């Protein structure tokens, strides 16, 4: 699938790192829709070599750094940047969530500091806006569906509760470097005015207002020759590749469908409810049991899954309402989210390698990373868009747990799967029931 393409070698246009797996596919989707040929590496060591990358315009490394300890997050990011540097990209991109998910100690600021130092740059823009998904920045403040970030559901996020709305105020405790703001009035005057404002600033980081896709295109045009960009996938909207996305091949494997939900976001909960109301088969994981008896829960879930008709649409989830999280938090000191991720990733492994599932939607950035790792995926070839920031991708798998002769044969001919790795907050309410249409 990732064979060397017989074309003239070219400098890679963009080398990017993303703070989670869905963030990587989010950026990859934006780029593919704009004519880029894109691959996502699920580990720094999976970055294609120069010969393998000849047919690509962009390579994105999917990391799990959003909630990792700061030192670990920085080290992973630098390892990815160093691998990408071997492809000599014209530009680097540090992609983070459009709700700027982080804590007072990191990880966005420390990663940006380290990347700038690594590639010899002194500044970048900070542009979390993604209007297509309701994220905008005005007067330096981040809004989610018209609400200030601090008033949005992100205020109650279990891992990165966002209680501030001014982006500079969120970033300032994470970095010793200076931060400035470029207001919307300057952006609306065009790329030259934005560039002039940036040139006049001595700050390492410039938070730039943007409330429309045109604003994002203006910012990108103004910084087209900058060594490093940072932001959400929206900042890629001003980039333009040379390849019609409709003409890029994507052949999804035949096989059973499955939806796995580790996200507790309001959007994912709405998508679960919509799918169940439309006739999907639901299995709600008991969070306490995921903590206390994961093996038994796995056995029962797989038994249920194996008993469904081939044409059914199973949706496996753990959170229907926030009361599910609150109840577990009150009874346990362990990490319920991590326990659920482990169970869901094991379900994915068995579903693919034992039960013949080949088309899987995964909701939640951390869950997506756990599932892709459990499946032995190393790279994703990006396919058609399902919603802003959500796409199908092809991935070769490996049954890393197999040790028998049959397992060796499975590793010699690993199944290819179609994966849609979805940020918890992205997609229409009916995504779980409509995602399959582009594969038929």
Automatic annotation (TrEMBL):
Domain of life of the organism encoding this protein: Bacteria
Four-carbon acid sugar kinase N-terminal domain sequence ranges: 14-236
Coiled coil residues, start to end: none
Entry GO MF terms: kinase activity
Catalytic reactions of this protein: 3-dehydro-D-erythronate + ATP = 3-dehydro-4-O-phospho-D-erythronate + ADP + H(+); 3-dehydro-L-erythronate + ATP = 3-dehydro-4-O-phospho-L-erythronate + ADP + H(+)
TM region positions: none
EC number: 2.7.1.217
Keyword tags: ATP-binding, Carbohydrate metabolism, Kinase, Nucleotide-binding, Transferase
Family statement drawn from the similarity comment of this UniProt entry: Belongs to the four-carbon acid sugar kinase family.
Purpose: Catalyzes the ATP-dependent phosphorylation of 3-oxo-tetronate to 3-oxo-tetronate 4-phosphate.
Protein's name according to its UniProt entry: 3-oxo-tetronate kinase
Organism this protein belongs to: Herbiconiux gentiana
